[in-house]
């Protein structure tokens, strides 16, 4: 691979800027300062350093972020503070974007990648990757919600939702879990509004069989290996997962 392409794919520098940086002597390969930006390198077994920072070779980047409130799932800073602002520079490869969105005031799991093929698999309507959310309600959960969500709720604008599963939380009447297989605009909030309740707090805790690590703090991220990413397409026992993780995730919502 050409050196300038390798650097361009892993930084925000353009090819022209890289040429200037090389001329300044700010780029080295295996500890040796290079003179030409178009030299060929083997990124799998050579170390490239740009202005004092080593660039790590990855075919693709996969990240789980625990999104706080106040950030938008966008790559455009015109939308305000974005989830990319929470990712360190060394992981900000070209093409990195959130595969799936969370509302600005929703917390929890966001999956970011530069792997367009994988993102298409995740977001394809034919896939229906299940996503689980923890919900703090304004009014107590009613058992009738279970059947209404299972049948497919009709939203205020007449739009019908796919069947969804909703779980009550024992001894915590204003909490619930919901498992969705689609991602309409403000969907969880609109679904509970359709049954005359209101969502006070909302947190996504899983996508497919990939779970938000309970130890991941607000705004923190973890990089995944490809073998872990495949868990997105594995089944998850939603009811068991929710029961076992209610305490830690509800504490997070209460304290953040």
Which key features would you list for this structure?
256 residues; alpha+beta; Structural Genomics Hypothetical 15.5 Kd Protein In mrcA-pckA Intergenic Region, Chain A; Pseudouridine synthase; nine-stranded mixed sheet; four-stranded antiparallel sheet; 7 helices; elongated
Q: Can you put this structure into words, describing what you see?
A:
- The chain is of the alpha+beta class and 256 residues long.
- It folds into two domains: 3-55, Structural Genomics Hypothetical 15.5 Kd Protein In mrcA-pckA Intergenic Region, Chain A; 62-255, 2-Layer Sandwich (Pseudouridine synthase), CATH 3.30.2350.
- 25% of the residues lie in helices and 22% in strands.
- The protein has helices at residues 3-10, 15-23, 116-123, 144-151, 187-194, 226-229, 238-255; strands at residues 27-29, 32-33, 48-50, 53-55, 62-67, 97-98, 107-113, 131-137, 165-168, 175-180, 199-207, 210-211, 221-223.
- The strands form two sheets. Strands 5, 6, 7, 8, 9, 10, 11, 12 and 13 form a nine-stranded mixed beta sheet that branches. A four-stranded antiparallel beta sheet has the order 2-1-3-4.
- β9 and β10 form a beta hairpin.
- It is elongated.
- The relative contact order is 0.14.
- The model has no long low-confidence stretch (mean pLDDT 92).
């Amino acid at each position: 691979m050409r050196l300038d392409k390798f650097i361009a794919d892993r930084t925000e520098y353009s090819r022209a800027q890289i040429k200037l940086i090389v001329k300044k002597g700010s780029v080295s390969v295996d500890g040796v300062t290079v003179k030409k930006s178009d030299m060929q390198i083997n990124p799998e077994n050579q170390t490239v350093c740009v202005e004092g920072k080593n660039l790590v070779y990855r075919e693709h980047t996969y990240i789980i972020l625990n999104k706080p409130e106040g950030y938008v799932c966008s790559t455009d800073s015109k939308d305000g503070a974005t989830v990319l602002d929470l990712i360190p520079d060394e992981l900000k490869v070209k093409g990195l974007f959130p595969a799936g969105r969370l509302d600005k005031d929703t917390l929890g799991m966001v999956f970011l990648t530069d792997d367009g093929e994988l993102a298409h698999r995740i977001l394809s309507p034919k896939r229906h990757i299940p996503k689980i959310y923890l919900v703090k309600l304004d009014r107590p959960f009613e058992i009738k919600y279970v059947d209404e969500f299972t049948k497919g709720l009709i939203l205020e604008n007449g739009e019908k939702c796919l069947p969804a599963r909703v779980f009550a939380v024992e001894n915590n009447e204003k909490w619930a879990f919901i498992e969705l297989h689609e991602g309409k605009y403000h969907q969880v909030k609109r679904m509970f509004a359709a049954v005359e309740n209101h969502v006070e707090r909302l947190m996504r805790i899983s996508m497919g069989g990939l779970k938000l690590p309970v130890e991941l703090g607000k705004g923190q991220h973890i990089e995944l290996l490809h073998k872990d990413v495949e868990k997105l397409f594995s089944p998850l026992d939603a009811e068991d997962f929710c029961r076992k993780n209610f305490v830690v995730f509800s504490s997070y919502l209460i304290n953040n």
